[in-house]
Structure formats: structure tokens, C-alpha cells
Amino acid sequence: MNEPTTPEETRLALVRDHTVYACVTGSRAFGLATEASDTDRRGVYLAPTPLFWRFENPPTHVEGPREEEFSWELERFCELALRANPNILECLHSPLVEQLTPTGEELLSLRPAFLSRRAHASFTRYAASQHRKLLADVRVHGAPRWKHAMHLLRLLLSCRDLLRTGRLTIDMTRHRERLLAVRRGELTWAQTDTWMSRLTEDCDLALTTGPLPAEPDTARVADFLHRARRASAA
User: Fold this and answer.
1) Average pLDDT over residues 46-55
2) Inter-axis angle of helices 218-233 and 102-109, nearest 10
3) pLDDT in tens, 36-48
4) How far is CA 121 from CA 118, 126, 207, 231, in A?
5) How far apart are CA 10 and CA 217, in angstroms?
6) SS3 of the chain: helix, strand, coil, percent, to 5
7) Average pLDDT for 1-28
8) DSSP the chain
9) pLDDT confidence of residue 40
10) Where are the domains of the chain?
11) Quick check: 1 pLDDT over 60?
């Protein structure tokens, strides 16, 4: 295998040679794909420990090499997952796994350690920001971007069920027909907005009654990361 000779080649080599987990996310993982849907790929790479023994650390993320592909370095991925970042947690729970090493298997076994009531704040805060954008579209154009409205509803459904059950399920097959009807603009904005408001209220209620712990198991994740770094150094 040829050694990378440019900074970009070096970045892409991290994905090529050191990926521990790779999956498909987006509509295909959500059960909402149509013929026009892209294939969104996400991954996690473990940068070799010796790369940290210099002034310039390896990148925390890399785009590519394929279209619609994005990867995170393991430590950055864990940091974001502990904060209950919605995109990261959805990646971690994708049913469409394309690559998995023993380190990746252990990462997936830690799924429960990342879940906590922090998800309520992170998911609903993101949902509120997207809702403001949809309202701006309605004011300017008379209608929202329906695809974005569908994905906001999907996010709130995942958040509600996570808070109620303690498990994150991203497959929306059972809601597919109604969500795709939103995407096609077959529901009015008033109907769609009412659904969003009801789901937000459900999330607030589930926060106080659901089984999730207040905080993630940071110590367990830190132990995993420490062992992965040590193994890489050896």
C-alpha cells in the first residue's frame, strides 16, 4: 500500500486504515428512504496513539473519501455521544453496519453508557432551532421545507421513545406512511405543527417519568478509550 504524501491523503488514510466502525445513516437507516435518497455514510476511526506524540494532533474528523461520507476520531465521537448529540447517537444506533472491528464491537456494547436524560435537552434544543427555521419558511414562502419538517418529527419521535423506554430506536418504519405524507406536503402546516407540539409535550413528560439516568456513564467510556489508546500504542 502506498504511503500518503499530502495532508489530505494522510487524513483519508485514517479512514481507510483505522476505521473501527462504519454505518449508513439518514433516511436509509430511518426506514424513510425513497428512490431519490442519498446514501449517508458515517464512521469512527482510531488514530494511532503515536500520532498524538507531536505538536500537531490528528484531525478530530474527516470528510470522504466517498460522497456523503463523514468520520470522527474515536475520542471526539465519544465526547459528542456523552453530550447526547443527536447525530452521533443516531450513528451509534444505526441498523445498517458496514464495517466493525473488535474495538468497534466494544464501542457498540457501550451504547447504554452514553444514554442519559441529557438527551432531552440536546434533542429538543436542536428541534426548537429547526422549528424556528420552518416558521421562517412559512412566513416568507407560505410553506415549510417539507423534508425538513418530516425529519424534525422523526427526531421528536425518537426522543420521546428514548425518554419513555431508555432505548434509542431510529427505525421509523411504523411511522413511515404518515412521515412521508408530511414530506409530500399532504398534511397542512397547522396539522404538522400540532403534531410537533404534541411530541414536544410528550418529551417533556417522559423526562420526569422515564428510566434514563441523569448522567451518562462517563467513567466506563473513559476506561474504554484509555484501553483503546494503550492497545494502539503497543
Assistant:
1) 92
2) 170
3) 889 999 999 999 9
4) 6, 8, 10, 35
5) 33
6) 60, 10, 30
7) 86
8) -PPP-SHHHHHHHHHHHHEEEEEEETHHHHT---TT---EEEEEE---GGGGSSSSPPPSEEE-SSTTEEEEEHHHHHHHHHTT-HHHHHHHT-SEEEEE-HHHHHHHHTHHHH-STHHHHHHHHHHHHHHHHHHHHHHHHSS--HHHHHHHHHHHHHHHHHHHHS------GGGHHHHHHHHTT-S-HHHHHHHHHHHHHHHHHHHHHS---SS--HHHHHHHHHHHHHHHH-
9) 96
10) 7-114+216-233, 118-209
11) no
For the stretch 129-143, pLDDT in tens is 999 999 999 999 999
**7-114+216-233, what's its fold?**
Beta Polymerase; domain 2 (3.30.460)
What the block records as the C-alpha cell of 86 is: 443527536
Q: What is the mean pLDDT of residues 162-183?
A: 96
State what percent of residues in the chain have pLDDT above 90. Answer: 89
**Location of C-alpha cell 483519508:** 12
